[in-house]
Amino acid sequence: MKEVRLETDRLILRTYRLADFEDHFKLCADPDVMRYLIGGKPLTKFEAWRHMAFLVGHWELLGYGYFVAEKKHRAGSWAESVHES
C-alpha cells in the first residue's frame, strides 16, 4: 500500500511502518497510556504486534485508519516524545 501522509507546520501524520513497532510497543506496554485504551491493561509484545497489524490492516482493507504522529523538528516518533517526559 502507498503511504498516506499529511503534514502541518509542526507534525507529520502517516501510516504505520514496520520500523514503528518498537515505539508502538513502548506505548502499548505503558500502564499510564493503556489504562484508557483497549481494555485498560498494558499489552504484551505479541499483543502489541497484533494490534499494530490490525491498524495496518485497517488501511489495507478499508483505506482509512489511525496515523503515526511525528514532530517535524526532530527525528523520532510521537511515542518517543511521550516517554521523554
Descriptive account of the structure:
By secondary structure, the chain is α+β, with helices and mostly antiparallel strands. It has helices at about 20-30, 30-35, 45-60, 80-85, and strands spanning about 5, 10-15, 70. The longest helix is centred in the middle third of the chain and has 18 residues, at about 45-60. The chain starts with a strand and ends with a helix. The model has no long low-confidence stretch (mean pLDDT about 85).
Question: Could you give the topology of this structure?
Answer:
Elements: E1 5-7, E2 11-14, H1 21-29, H2 31-34, H3 45-62, E3 68-71, H4 78-84
Antiparallel strand pairs: 1-2, 2-3
Helix pairs in contact: 1-3, 1-4
Strand content: 5-15%
Rg over C-alpha atoms, rounded to the nearest angstrom: 13 Å
User: Tell me about the biggest sheet?
Assistant: 3 strands, antiparallel
Low-confidence stretches: none
Distance between the termini: 34 Å
- Cα shape: globular
Strand order of the largest sheet: 1-2-3
Order of helices and strands: EEHHHEH
Which bin fits the share of residues in helices?
Answer: 40-55%
The helix tally amounts to 4
> Mean pLDDT, rounded to whole units?
87
Count all strands and give the number.
3
Task: Please state the structural category.
Answer: alpha+beta
In brief:
The chain has helices at residues 21-29, 31-34, 45-62, 78-84, and strands spanning 5-7, 11-14, 68-71. The protein has 85 residues and is of the alpha+beta class.
Feature tags:
4 helices, 85 residues, globular, three-stranded antiparallel beta sheet, 45% helix, single chain, alpha+beta
